[in-house]
Specification:
Helix content: 40-55%
Number of domains: 1
Structural class: alpha/beta
Number of helices: 10
Largest sheet: 7 strands, mixed
Shape: globular
Strand content: 15-25%
Distance between the termini: 46 Å
Radius of gyration: 17 Å
Strand order of the largest sheet: 3-2-1-4-5-7-6
Number of strands: 7
Length: 231
């Protein structure tokens, strides 16, 4: 089993349904806060369940949801079949979009599951889609010194804020025995320094800046904006 198999199968990375709901609410609101008024086309790449998609879609002209797991895309299509400005595409379909047609690409909590070379290739493929002043926002980047204990601490702090502490404690013990932990031990998670992301951005001709806050609850991780600057 690899990471794509894990996401394509039956799994749960959430300690309870409240954790799942609050996580998606937080991520959706953090994305909206980064969208300027009158944003056109937004892609949520590697979106997962994207439970806050309708909220994000109210702040742009069109929202494209894309995930590599076919089972996730099936659910997204079912949930949003009547939505006027939400569509679901496979990753290769995203790369076939017209150059310069996208205002913002969100890649949140994805790059840790890709090898470094695959991350570079992905961003090279997505960068031509950006309109002038368009941005790629990469979120939840794990820095080199971030630990599993830091992840657990961030979850417990979030659980305390959102009042699911008991479930979080039980969930952490359950995760220790889960397929997620086994795959993480086998494949690891890719870590990036600020310099790594800045180097990739420079190669693509994108202005790169780390934002003050990370997307999501774990502020020990990082978010960067890579922007195509209009001539």
């Amino acid at each position: 089993m690899n990471w794509l198999d894990f996401w394509n199968g039956n799994h749960s990375i959430y300690v309870c349904d409240k954790h799942r709901q609050r996580h998606h609410m937080r991520v959706g609101e953090d994305i909206v806060q980064r969208l300027p008024p009158r944003t056109g086309v937004v892609i949520d790449y590697g979106c997962g369940e994207a439970l806050s998609a309708e909220h994000v879609a109210r702040h742009c002209e069109k929202l494209i949801l894309s995930d590599g797991a076919a089972s996730v895309r099936e659910r997204l299509n079912e949930w949003h079949q009547n939505a006027k400005n939400i569509s679901v595409l496979a990753p290769d379909e995203v790369l076939d979009l017209d150059e310069g047609s996208v205002d913002c690409i969100i890649i949140n909590s994805v790059l840790q599951y890709l090898a470094f070379d695959d991350t570079q290739a992905l961003l090279e493929g997505l960068a031509p889609l950006l309109a002038p002043n368009g941005r790629i926002i990469v979120g939840d980047i794990i820095p080199p010194d971030h630990t599993v204990l830091a992840d657990a601490g961030a979850l417990l702090h979030f659980a305390w804020q959102e009042q699911f502490m008991t479930e979080a404690m039980i969930g952490l013990m359950r995760t220790f025995l889960s397929d997620y932990r086994k795959i993480r031990a086998a494949y690891g998670l890719t870590r990036y320094s600020s310099q790594d992301i800045e180097t990739i951005g420079a190669r693509l001709g994108l202005r790169t800046q780390r934002t003050a806050l990370n997307i999501g609850h774990d502020q020990g991780r990082m978010t960067f904006e890579l922007q195509r600057v209009a001539a």
